[in-house]
């Protein structure tokens, strides 16, 4: 019910456009079916399903715009929602930054939908949870996890002839395994568009191993260490950096990309030349919607090339003001990796620390992108090419910009949080204190 | 990429990134926010449909929440209103126990048929989940209260103030900031109204009208020559009050140490924006802190967040028991420590109370979301851990005969669970002003308002920043500092507490956005304290060059 086909969505949106009497009108029709299961203490705690479909209509008169929403799609309801958006637009103050609807665009072919995910049942979720809980219970370990899946569509149309439609599916799984003596903890995360790639037993096995192996953690002095970051550990820091690459913030002088004396670091080398980060909505491992919520086409595009800032993100208003083409915010990020496996990277490390993940990451200084946070769920000391022993968790204070300047080795890529991120070996990573947390 | 930081691209400050919009919220005309929904008679009739339908289907317990959640956001920067968002979310959530197991279902079809169907669905889910249940749910008793009501004691309903008046206030404050040398200001007003009707098979029919208000700005100053930029956030608090919070009455202003103007039960946005612009320029040229051990004097507008993270969270019983292990984490304050009755959480000066009753606080309601009358209780007494925060299905585990009344759901579509009550540090018994407290410190830092924050998943190790930092030398404020953060461990930190100012200095601050659960739910909570001294805390310098 909540999922409309391309033709059904087009038919509804065409009616909306016909009712419009404003200077311009744009409508987004989105819907989704979702489900989840949560477990803790080796038993299911909550499970649920939800579905929703919403039509949002925005009308504008000049730079005055109004928005109204409805979830009924008969002709009378559609006309009513258009009239209401027009009334609100007439009452609204002028927004000097309002940008009218876009002309018709051309989009690439979407790869975000997988049939298997759209057909997930409550029984599938219960079994996925059981496949995680049962091996834990057999090993004196307690499982807590969460599986969430969604199948949705997004569509939009405007009075300038733009029409866009996309279907997508997603599944996210995280699991934390804790030894029953409270001394060891392990974690794993998986996310896919296609649920047939998900094996909760495989992910749970890794988390159980980490929990058991981390239960005799030693305290070592905080300081600067060579670290091997698993992709899930590096992911949040890298995403935080990408989120801070808005052109407007940089042009206004309040960004790590702003330069002393004015101007920005666009075109300048800011990290190691082996760092290449790009976006590609059509990558089959990490597909993203071919268009943005305001109808702009997404394309493959460099963000950092050979360590140089190749693009900052311009919304349509700021692009027009600066006289450049808009650069929409990317739907995914892909960091090029190398060929080394994690085992190869450990073998090649004399002294270092393997980090499973970071937790509670917060900005300390937006000027330098200094972040603080802690290691969690599996932190190990590496000595002479081998994992020597588990260590207590650390607090770090580090900037992804400094981190990417201290790059030693890039390993294989792994999908994490919708992005492709490689294992990374980094020198001189700053751990500033110890934590007793397990 | 996640959408969570979408707004950051528009250059808004940290607090603006998560608009606390309820599930299934629809954008509406602002006048809709003043229209009444169902009257109490209609709500009771619908609630009885749910109670009867679930009982017939085999439920041994049922509660039904008919909720209407209204939000308004006015979003401005410098001389522009960037956006105005008005949302309404209306529906019903039904929670049951069948076969000793919880089941929950929700619907936005608030008709007799829709509600009966959801009630039966909740029972079916409970029965299906009961196959996995290892021990049946046990609820501690609660009184049936009959037909009762509660309303946040507001003087002015913010939704009745015209959008133009609100926008004018924000734009006026923005103009003062710009005149006083700010490079930019982002200024946002959030208004929340929860109209909640609760009924349960225990015999309660509770109608509540809850209001919250939060004005928030960030002023930025840029020094083009050095390429430095600094920010100062507003000294406002999110409050459980109406629009009267923005009256900025003279009697609610406090001139604190270092000449900083602070606010109590009402807030002067225009004055604060003016000061923020002046102070943020001062931060640019302030002395960078020398790292080392300092005695800290922490102002209530700062200390609330340290209390929230290092006391409020670890004393949530669901975290202690492991229900949040995969997300928010567990707790160092384990049951065995509590059972000794000797666990030294802090020094003798440290007394923490939890409550859902303080007037003006974000947590204040008459009854919680499972129909328990709210109250106040001790968590830490004379430094010793004495209790947790627990709801009806947990209270028995810690030997309590009644729930603490801290159950909450952020929407009709979310299942209610244990959430943090207001958790506050009791003011000192002896007469002590902040000036006297600072007067006793030889080498210290005085910190005003919360800033950066991070704590581990069991709530041992933390690091906090702030908005304004002042060096204390030989009992006197010796100028502004920058690049300050302090690191400590919860138990060590609260044991280093040596002085708490008296009740004249006690004030509330808090958060609209306390996150917990999967799928995530947001809750609003306040924390009170007076200015407090901690000895020998590790201060780090956060300046870097990239």
UniProtKB/TrEMBL annotation, chain A:
<dbReference type="Pfam" id="PF19289">
    <property type="entry name" value="PmbA_TldD_3rd"/>
</dbReference>
<dbReference type="InterPro" id="IPR035068">
    <property type="entry name" value="TldD/PmbA_N"/>
</dbReference>
<feature type="domain" description="Metalloprotease TldD/E N-terminal">
    <location>
        <begin position="26"/>
        <end position="89"/>
    </location>
</feature>
<dbReference type="InterPro" id="IPR002510">
    <property type="entry name" value="Metalloprtase-TldD/E_N"/>
</dbReference>
<protein>
    <submittedName>
        <fullName>TldD/PmbA family protein</fullName>
    </submittedName>
</protein>
<dbReference type="Pfam" id="PF19290">
    <property type="entry name" value="PmbA_TldD_2nd"/>
</dbReference>
<dbReference type="Pfam" id="PF01523">
    <property type="entry name" value="PmbA_TldD_1st"/>
</dbReference>
<dbReference type="InterPro" id="IPR036059">
    <property type="entry name" value="TldD/PmbA_sf"/>
</dbReference>
<feature type="domain" description="Metalloprotease TldD/E C-terminal">
    <location>
        <begin position="222"/>
        <end position="432"/>
    </location>
</feature>
<feature type="domain" description="Metalloprotease TldD/E central">
    <location>
        <begin position="131"/>
        <end position="214"/>
    </location>
</feature>
<comment type="similarity">
    <text>Belongs to the peptidase U62 family.</text>
</comment>
<dbReference type="InterPro" id="IPR045569">
    <property type="entry name" value="Metalloprtase-TldD/E_C"/>
</dbReference>
<dbReference type="InterPro" id="IPR045570">
    <property type="entry name" value="Metalloprtase-TldD/E_cen_dom"/>
</dbReference>
């Amino acid at each position: 019910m909540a999922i409309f086909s391309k033709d059904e969505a087009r038919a509804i949106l065409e009616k909306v456009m016909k009712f419009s009497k404003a200077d311009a009108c744009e409508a987004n029709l989105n819907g989704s079916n979702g489900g989840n299961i949560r477990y803790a203490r080796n038993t299911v705690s909550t499970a649920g399903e939800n579905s929703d479909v919403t039509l949002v209509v925005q009308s504008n008169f000049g730079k005055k715009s109004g928005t109204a929403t409805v979830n009924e799609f008969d002709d009378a309801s559609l006309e009513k929602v258009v009239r209401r958006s027009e009334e609100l637009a007439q009452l609204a103050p002028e927004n000097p930054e309002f940008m009218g609807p876009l002309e018709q665009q051309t989009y690439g072919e979407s790869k975000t939908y997988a049939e298997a995910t759209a057909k997930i049942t409550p029984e599938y979720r219960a079994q996925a949870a059981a496949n995680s809980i049962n091996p834990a219970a057999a090993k004196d370990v307690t499982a807590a996890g969460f599986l969430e899946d969604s199948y949705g569509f997004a569509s939009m149309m405007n009075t300038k002839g733009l029409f866009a439609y996309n279907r997508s599916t997603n599944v996210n799984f995280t699991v934390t395994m804790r030894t029953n003596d409270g001394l060891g903890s392990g974690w794993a995360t998986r996310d896919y568009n296609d649920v047939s790639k998900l094996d909760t037993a495989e992910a749970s096995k890794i988390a159980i191993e980490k929990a058991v192996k981390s239960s005799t953690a030693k305290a070592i002095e905080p300081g600067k260490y060579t670290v091997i970051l698993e992709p899930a550990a590096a992911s949040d820091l890298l995403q935080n950096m990408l989120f801070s690459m808005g052109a407007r913030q940089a042009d206004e002088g309040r960004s790590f990309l702003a330069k002393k004396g004015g101007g920005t670091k666009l075109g300048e080398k800011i990290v190691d030349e082996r760092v290449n980060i790009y976006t590609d909505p059509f990558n089959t491992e990490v597909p993203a919607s071919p268009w943005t919520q305001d109808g702009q086409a997404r394309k493959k595009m460099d963000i950092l090339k050979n360590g140089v800032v190749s693009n900052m993100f311009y919304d349509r208003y700021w692009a027009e003001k600066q006289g450049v083409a808009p650069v929409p915010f990317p739907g995914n990020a892909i960091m090029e990796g190398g060929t080394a496996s994690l085992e190869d990277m450990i073998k090649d490390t004399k002294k270092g620390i393997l980090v499973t993940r970071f937790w509670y990451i917060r900005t300390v200084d937006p000027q330098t992108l200094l972040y603080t946070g802690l290691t969690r769920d599996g932190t190990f000391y590496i000595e002479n090419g081998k994992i020597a022993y588990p260590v207590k968790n650390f607090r770090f204070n580090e900037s992804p910009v400094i981190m990417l300047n201290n790059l030693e080795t890039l390993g294989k890529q792994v999908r994490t949080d919708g992005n492709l991120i490689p294992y990374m070996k980094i020198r001189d990573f700053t751990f500033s204190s110890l934590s007793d947390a397990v | 990429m996640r959408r969570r930081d979408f707004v950051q691209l528009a250059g808004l400050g940290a607090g603006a990134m998560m608009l606390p919009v309820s599930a299934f919220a629809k954008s509406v005309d602002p006048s809709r926010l003043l229209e009444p929904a169902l009257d109490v008679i209609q709500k009771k009739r619908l609630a009885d449909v749910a109670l009867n339908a679930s009982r017939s289907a085999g439920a041994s317990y049922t509660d039904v929440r008919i909720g209407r959640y209204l939000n308004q956001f006015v979003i401005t920067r410098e001389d522009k209103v960037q956006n105005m968002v008005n949302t309404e979310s209306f529906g019903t959530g039904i929670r049951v126990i069948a076969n000793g197991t919880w089941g929950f279902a929700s619907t936005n079809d608030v008709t007799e048929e829709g509600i009966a169907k959801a009630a039966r669905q909740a029972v079916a889910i409970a029965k299906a989940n009961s196959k996995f249940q290892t021990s049946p749910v046990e609820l501690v008793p609660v009184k049936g209260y009959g037909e009762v009501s509660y309303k946040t004691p507001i003087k002015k309903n913010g939704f009745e103030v015209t959008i133009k008046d609100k926008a004018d206030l924000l734009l006026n404050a923005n103009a003062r900031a710009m005149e006083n040398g700010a490079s930019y200001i982002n200024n946002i007003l959030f208004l929340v109204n929860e109209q909640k009707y609760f009924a349960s098979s225990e015999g309660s029919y509770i109608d509540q009208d809850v209001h919250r208000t939060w004005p928030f700005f960030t002023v930025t100053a840029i020094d083009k020559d050095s390429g430095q930029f600094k920010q100062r956030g507003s000294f406002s608090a999110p409050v459980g009050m109406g629009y009267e919070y923005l009256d900025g009455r003279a009697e609610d202003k406090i001139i604190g140490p270092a000449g900083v103007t602070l606010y109590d039960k009402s807030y002067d946005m225009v004055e604060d924006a003016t000061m923020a612009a002046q102070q943020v320029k001062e931060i640019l040229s302030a002395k960078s802190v020398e790292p080392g051990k300092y005695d800290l004097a922490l102002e209530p507008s700062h200390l609330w967040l340290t209390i929230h993270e290092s006391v409020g969270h670890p004393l949530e019983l669901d975290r202690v028991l492991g229900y949040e292990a995969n997300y928010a984490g567990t707790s160092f304050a384990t049951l065995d420590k509590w059972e000794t009755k000797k666990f030294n959480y802090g020094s003798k000066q440290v007394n923490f109370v939890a409550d859902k009753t303080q007037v003006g606080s974000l947590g204040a309601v008459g009854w919680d979301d499972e129909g328990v009358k709210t109250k106040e209780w001790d968590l830490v007494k004379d430094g010793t851990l004495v209790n947790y925060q627990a709801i009806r299905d947990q209270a028995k585990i810690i030997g309590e005969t009644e729930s603490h009344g801290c159950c909450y759901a952020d929407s009709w579509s979310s299942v209610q669970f244990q959430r943090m009550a207001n958790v506050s540090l009791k003011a000192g018994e002896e007469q002590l002003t902040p000036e006297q407290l600072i007067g006793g410190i030889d080498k210290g830092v005085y910190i005003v308002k919360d800033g950066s924050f991070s704590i581990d998943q069991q709530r041992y190790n933390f690091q906090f920043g702030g908005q304004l930092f002042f060096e204390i030398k030989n009992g006197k404020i010796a100028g502004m500092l920058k690049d300050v953060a302090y690191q400590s461990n919860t138990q060590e930190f609260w044991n280093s507490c040596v002085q708490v100012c008296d009740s004249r200095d006690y004030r509330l601050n808090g958060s609209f956005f306390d996150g917990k659960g999967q799928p995530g739910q947001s809750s609003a909570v306040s924390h009170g304290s007076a200015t407090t001294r901690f000895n020998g805390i590790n201060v780090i310098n956060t300046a870097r060059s990239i």
